[in-house]
Amino acid sequence: MTEYNAILEKSKRFAVRIVKLYRYLDKTKVPRALSDQILRSGTSIGANAAEAHLAPSSTDFYCKLGISLKEAKETEYWLYVLHGADFIDGRSYESINDDCVEILKILTAILKNRPNRTGKG
């Protein structure tokens, strides 16, 4: 399960970047609601992926990864908003957003390749 191991590592590193971004935003005039949103969604990606590791069933495993995917998409949205509102410069935005997009691609690949729930094909 190479993709799963990759998502665990990448989402942990991404969470650290999000926490650092949050600390930076906290020192600026970013509305607290925005910085709280990016912190919550950006760190939730890895938390749900880690939780999937001990899932009691494959259904629960894929459900947790599905939540990670939704949180990654939400994080991508908040990054866009923060950049569009000029709270994150272009270079910083591109760097962290590229990581987010990579996480989205990995999660999508894992979920796309999941076994059929009905057991047919």
Automatic annotation (TrEMBL):
Coiled-coil region: none
NCBIfam families the record matches: four helix bundle protein
Q: What is this protein called?
A: Four helix bundle protein
The organism encoding this protein is Hallella mizrahii
